[in-house]
Amino acid sequence: MANFCENCGSPLKEGYKFCENCGAPIKPDAEPENVAGSFAAGAAATAAAAAGMASDRHNAPGQQASAAPITGREAPFITKSAPPTPLPEKQRDPASDFTPYREPARDRTGQQYEPDEDLQSMFLRYDNRLNRKPYIIRGCQLWAVNLAVGVVIGLIAGFLKTPSITYLSSIFSIACAVPSIMLLIRRLHDLNRPGWWCLGMLIPLLNIVLAVYVLFFKGTDGPNDYGPDPLG
User: Fold this and answer.
1) pTM (predicted TM-score)
2) Residue 210 and residue 123 in one domain
3) How many CA atoms lie within 13 A of 229 on its CB side?
4) Distance between CA 102 and CA 110 in Å, rounded?
5) Is 83 a member of any domain?
6) Among 50, 72, 89, where does a domain finish?
7) Domain span including residue 20
8) Count of CB atoms situated within 10 Å of the CB of 99
9) DSSP readout, 61-119?
10) Could you give the CA distance from residue 124 to residue 177 in angstroms, rounded to a whole number?
């Protein structure tokens, strides 16, 4: 029983059911709660909740769990894990991509011979080198084309009885001289000789010596001053 009245605050005597001052009824003290019974009731409630969750999962495995937060005694073991910390990216050193300039080496493992892939590179280039076999074959091809064009133009001129058409054959022969000079310059480069030596073809007797030289002499073994070896 309380020692003072809850209504007026006057002291109370033992055994009285009403306050002597204000006449308010006196409430008896509440009995202490059974701790063991409370713990048992809480444990029973937790077990019932766990059984209900297991039943829901068994009956509906495809459904997701309820989004309502679980707090208090129902699931004290549930904890929220922190997201994994991403690893820092490895910084690339720009200096590792730097490649110092090196002059192309003139050897078998460095600079490579560039073969001719089309008609322009076969007949209208003066750089690089040309060995004997392709020089002779391409020279014969130019000579055969020039001869065939001359014969066709001569037949047309004889059929039409117009000799002036034969001048076209001379013009075409002059045009064929340009690729012939390009082939000769590249053949001289294969012999490690400068291209201006081709002017020797304009000098009598010297042109014969030069023709024998480019037709029968072998080119430089390995790279020379004008490029890699075509046969390397």
Assistant:
1) 0.51
2) yes
3) 11
4) 11
5) no
6) 50
7) 1-50
8) 6
9) TTSPPP-SPP-TTS-TT--PPPPPPPPPPPPPPGGGG-----PPP-STTSSPP----SH
10) 11
Cα 171 to Cα 124: distance, rounded to the nearest angstrom:
18
Question: Which residues have C-beta within 8 Å of that of residue 190, sequence separation ≥ 6?
Answer: 129, 130, 131, 132, 135, 219, 220, 226, 230
The dihedral formed by the CA atoms of 166, 168, 174 and 175, expressed in degrees to the nearest 10: -150
pLDDT tens, the chain, 232 aa long: 457 777 777 777 777 777 777 777 776 654 444 444 554 555 666 666 666 565 555 454 444 444 444 444 444 445 556 666 766 666 666 555 555 544 443 444 456 778 888 888 889 988 889 999 999 999 999 999 999 998 999 888 888 888 788 888 889 889 999 999 999 999 999 999 999 999 999 999 999 999 999 999 999 988 999 989 888 7
Q: How far is Cα 229 from Cα 62, in angstroms, rounded to an integer?
A: 76
The domain boundary residue, chosen from 19, 35, 50? 50
Residue 60 within a domain: no
Residue 184: burial class (beta carbons within 10 Å; 0-12, 13-18, 19+):
buried
Report yes or no on 174 lying in a domain.
Answer: yes
Per-residue DSSP letter, 214? H
Q: Tokens standing for 174? A: 């002059």
pLDDT of residue 128: 86
Q: What are phi and psi of 4, to 5 degrees?
A: -135, 150
How many structural domains are present in the chain? 2
| Residue 225: inside a domain | no
Structure tokens at 81: 């894990």
